[in-house]
Amino acid sequence: MTNLKKNFVPVTQPYLPPLDEFRPYLEDIWDRKWVTNNGWYHQQLEKELCDYLGVEHLSLFSNGTLALITALQALKITGEVITTPFSFVATSHALHWNGIRPVFVDIDPISLNLDPERIEAAITPQTTALLPVHVYANPCDVERIEAIADTYGLRVIYDAAHAFGVRVNDRSVLNYGDMSVLSFHGTKVFNTFEGGAIVCRDEKTKRRIDNLKNFGFVDETTVVAPGINGKMNEVQAAFGLLQLKHMGEINEKRARIDERYREAFKNVQGIELHHVPTHCTKNYAYFPILVKPDFPISRDDLYDELRTKEVAARRYFYPLISEFPMYRGLPSAGQHNLPVATAASRQVLCLPIFPALAEQDQERIIETVLECAWRNRRAS
Ligand SMILES: *Cc1c(COP(=O)(O)O)cnc(C)c1O
């Protein structure tokens, strides 16, 4: 507790409700003495999340990465899977842990999501599935992706780690594809400290997923698959239920910061804002900006400048997944195959956005960026 710097602004911070509100949940768990394995709060959170999100079948996990790994297991995905290099590294790691080869396809320059126009060229006889990501909670082109998957008989698993609560055409984005995977990590819009979930289409698949996250047990003595331990415990689930009660306030506070940044940066030369199409709702999970070549200083210099003002912006996603040592040897990982993702990864900077971000800190961030924008042109 001693090294918490007073003026330091992190890029994100978990929303934590007043501690007193959580005490009754803990007392109840203490009374029940049921701490994990599909306990009361676990069952309740699955129900309430289905209602809140507008989905029918949801299985909780101890984190998003195990949920991704298990989703691939549940669908028996093998061979090659087409995915985006512009994501958090867990997206490809989940493939790696299943012995599946990631095939990287470039992204769309506006949405920064997997470019549907480039998917077909990457399909081979080994391709079994697509693993797109709704980056920054901006939905992928779900209709185009569905059409391609149908044409080629491919499964679709969405990494929806960012996309909690997002709707497309007034329908949950989580209802597209065969499965969607959420993360409830402390850095995400809705958190259970660590946590995640798989959203699937039918009860039978949910049962298979529930077995897989519990070592493959279907009853006391029967194990039907080499499952894993991916179960969410009761304290996390109870915290999730409490967190859900605060989602209105969380969204409102995030929306206000988003609005303030947009207003401040809308006419700044060299700063490109990320826009969500109007048929989609937003959850304000991130505030990415692209620092273009006509901004007076580079993205990294702006990052450093913010650092000196004790503001931790993050270069999400830099490096690209395809640049990490375990992936860069893949034929699809070369920069010539991924020019748009490579450029975005060199230009993107996520500014702090979280419910408790103080007004004067927002001001400090805005002033720092604007002050850089007014500097003399960068010599090039
Ligand atoms: C956070 C995140 C994950 C991993 O989720 P965890 O709950 O941290 O395991 C996977 N994919 C993306 C895109 C993420 O942002």
Automatic annotation (TrEMBL):
An individual GO BP term: polysaccharide biosynthetic process
Residues with PTM N6-(pyridoxal phosphate)lysine: 188
Top-level class of the enzyme under EC nomenclature: transferase
The keyword Nucleotidyltransferase is assigned to this record: no
EC number(s) stated in the UniProt entry for this protein: 2.6.1.-
Keyword annotations from UniProtKB, A to Z: Aminotransferase, Pyridoxal phosphate, Transferase
Highest taxon listed in the record's lineage: Bacteria
GO molecular function annotations of the record: pyridoxal phosphate binding; transaminase activity
Catalytic site positions: 188
InterPro entries: DegT/StrS_aminotransferase, PyrdxlP-dep_Trfase, PyrdxlP-dep_Trfase_major, PyrdxlP-dep_Trfase_small
Gene3D superfamilies: Aspartate Aminotransferase, domain 1, Type I PLP-dependent aspartate aminotransferase-like (Major domain)
Keyword check for Hydrolase: no
One matching Pfam family: DegT_DnrJ_EryC1
Family (UniProt): Belongs to the DegT/DnrJ/EryC1 family.
Protein name as annotated: Aminotransferase
